[in-house]
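=== How it folds ===
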Amino acid sequence: MAALLLGAVLLVAQPQLVPSRPAELGQQELLRKAGTLQDDVRDGVAPNGSAQQLPQTIIIGVRKGGTRALLEMLSLHPDVAAA
């Protein structure tokens, strides 16, 4: 229950991406450029032409949990790449 309450508080406390008042003349240019960069990020294509993808699987290991052996076995598969 505490985790749910903490999650709700953090969700409400997120900073807003849109300013609450109009920007000054110098800041308007910066905001326009930032908006363009955000559009590029939303499209999934970086300015240099590369694209980012979320991993399909994330392996999280603990000490003495056999994670190293699992990673070594997975590295033998041609479709598995280390991040």
